[in-house]
């Protein structure tokens, strides 16, 4: 990842960033077109292979690109990118290049054709793992095949959507590892 | 919900509490047995019907109860319940009644047999909607058929798991509704 602060990160540890439930920016590319969408409906599903499930509504312009490519990138924005998060979620890629409009810099990935977003704290390159629930639920299961994370800050301020235009910003961390059974910390 | 602060809440608005990604306590009951587990791997999947997807590992004692009953309750704990959240996640219902051990009060639901947890800020009664991904991924899709929420505080402090025994506590809220297209606020 030349010219970038990201470092390679173990894919099996992606849960650190995704399990707390932040809004993410999902980028895609297909047949010369690219796009990015805002997404809050996702969950970790497994450590290894590293799986993440995403409900990507078929009403989104990104849906076709993602469905055809069978790939995407899950990018983790921070509070500093909230204008872009809101803007991306309130425009359609059918009429706007959202990267240009919202000052997001596309960066080539190592495995997938979809662009990573340089301004994000982390980026997870994803390949389709399971699509049985796509026809009925628009629910994709992705395997995270590469993970890139900025080494600092240790705890980026993430934004978490509650609906009605209101976001919750991540707060303090509480370390309760001393109360965990050792095998629960693997 | 006699003797309780909860009020009925529109099931289509459950995303307000679940989309930000908090740790939840999933309670279950089957054949005279009851249990509760800690869960961070869940996502909203639809407004109406109100759907939530949960990865419930088959290694959990709760798995069989939930699988057999086809029902559960998703309870939303706050920071005040962190001792119980950690305790529930580090014990097994095979040898302990976790309700008694951790001071959680089971309350009968209106639709499902699984108990609601009185100390939680909110409780969502769930019926199985979709189990095609259970055999391969332990992934259940639930329909939230009743929702109960305490009217105060407006923004409870929720806890969000990051792994390694560390929790993020929900912070401030930021209202950006003025920047949303009206149809995005429905």
Structural features:
homodimer, 186 residues, alpha+beta, Pnp Oxidase, Chain A, two-stranded antiparallel ribbon, 5 helices, 12 strands, 38% strand, globular, Flavin reductase like domain-containing protein (chains A, B), Flavoredoxin (chains A, B), flavoprotein (chains A, B), FMN binding (chains A, B), Flavin_Rdtase-like_dom (chains A, B)
| Coarse morphology of chain A | globular
Instruction: Report Rg of chain A.
Output: 16 Å
Largest sheet descriptor of chain A = 8 strands, antiparallel
Q: Which percent range fits the helix content of chain A?
A: 10-25%
Q: Which quaternary structure do these chains form?
A: homodimer
CATH superfamily of chain A: Electron Transport, Fmn-binding Protein, Chain A
Structure description:
Chain A is an alpha+beta fold. In chain A, strands 1, 2, 3, 4, 5, 6, 9 and 10 form an eight-stranded antiparallel sheet that branches. The relative contact order of chain A is 0.22. Chain A is globular, with a radius of gyration of 16 Å. Chain A has helices at residues 15-18, 61-69, 82-89, 98-101, 134-137, and strands at 7-9, 24-30, 33-39, 42-46, 51-55, 71-76, 106-107, 116-117, 122-130, 139-149, 159-161, 166-175. The mean pLDDT of chain A is 96. In chain A, β2 and β3 (33-39) form a beta hairpin. Chain A has one domain: Pnp Oxidase, Chain A (Roll). The two termini of chain A are 29 Å apart. The first copy, chain A, is built from five helices and twelve strands. β12 of chain A pairs antiparallel with β12 (166-175) of chain B, so a sheet runs across the interface.
């Amino acid at each position: 990842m030349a010219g970038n602060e990201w470092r390679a990160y173990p894919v099996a540890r992606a849960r650190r960033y995704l399990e707390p439930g932040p809004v993410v920016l999902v980028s895609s590319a297909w047949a010369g077109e690219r796009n990015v969408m805002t997404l809050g409906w996702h969950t970790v599903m497994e450590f290894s292979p590293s799986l993440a499930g995403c409900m990507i509504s078929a009403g989104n312009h990104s849906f076709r690109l993602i469905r055809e490519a069978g790939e995407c990138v899950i990018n983790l924005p921070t509070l500093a990118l909230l204008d872009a998060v809101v803007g991306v979620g309130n425009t359609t890629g059918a009429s706007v290049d959202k990267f240009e409009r919202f000052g997001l810099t596309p960066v080539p990935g190592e495995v997938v054709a979809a662009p990573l977003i340089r301004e994000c704290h982390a980026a997870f390159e994803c390949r389709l793992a399971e699509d049985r629930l796509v026809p009925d639920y628009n629910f994709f299961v992705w395997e995270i095949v590469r993970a890139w994370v900025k080494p600092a800050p240790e705890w980026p301020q993430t934004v978490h959507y509650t609906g009605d235009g209101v976001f919750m910003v991540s707060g303090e961390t509480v370390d309760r590892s001393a109360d965990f059974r050792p095998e629960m910390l693997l």
